[in-house]
Amino acid sequence: METRSDEGTLTLSAYGNSEPLLRLTEDHDAKPSQTRSPGLFHLALLYPTRKDLAKAFKQLYVHRWPFQGFADHGVSEALYLADADGNGIELYRDLPREQWPYKNGELQMVTEQLDLDDLLSELNGKDIDDALTSEWLSIGHIHLQVSDLRQTEEFYHRTLGFDVVQRSFPGALFMSAGGYHHHIGANVWNSLGATPAQDGGLGLVEFGISMGDEPSRQELAARLRPTSNWISESGNGFVVRDADHIQIEIT
Length: 251
Known about the structure:
Layout: E1 2-6, E2 9-13, E3 22-25, E4 39-46, H1 50-62, E5 67-72, E6 76-82, E7 88-94, E8 102-103, E9 106-107, H2 116-120, E10 138-145, H3 149-159, E11 163-166, E12 172-176, E13 184-187, E14 206-209, H4 214-224, E15 230-233, E16 238-241, E17 247-250
């Protein structure tokens, strides 16, 4: 992954001069994040193939990076860990869409045990030395912890226009565009009824949503500008916040 550094900010992209996937900003005065505070639950990096996910797992295992869990979600296979500051990270690959489980028209994501031996069977002796197919690495979704799922649905579904994909997973809500299993996840497992996080803490500062349809973006900006969700115009679009004061740049 290519990195670029500028005055305390590290920018990571998948390859070449592609759009940044992640910006990390150094702040020596940042306060530790609170377990109950709304914000980032994890960001999820989507790998193009099962073999690429197996390579990532093997590399992390060899370097003894601690994992927090592994799961087969019925729609994807996922590895969970955290960075040095405790920010949650999911590494995953999608199963083919025709294998995704539905019941009464609703997607049924689950959390089952992931067979790590079977995952590693994707590799042979030399595969671990091959480079990852990094040009296809992307942020597949972002998962937030929020204080109230109804408020979250009101903003991301009714205001921003994401489709609700699954409500039946206890304490969680999953939303997407274009029929994907989820681009935005939200849960109240640790944060039910919590107040917004204080400024200056470790964790998520802002995430971005790209809208390819410029007229729709302009219409959304016009609707949000007079509301309490509006923050400001930006160089690429505009910045708003949800009910938990999580900032989103719409580009």
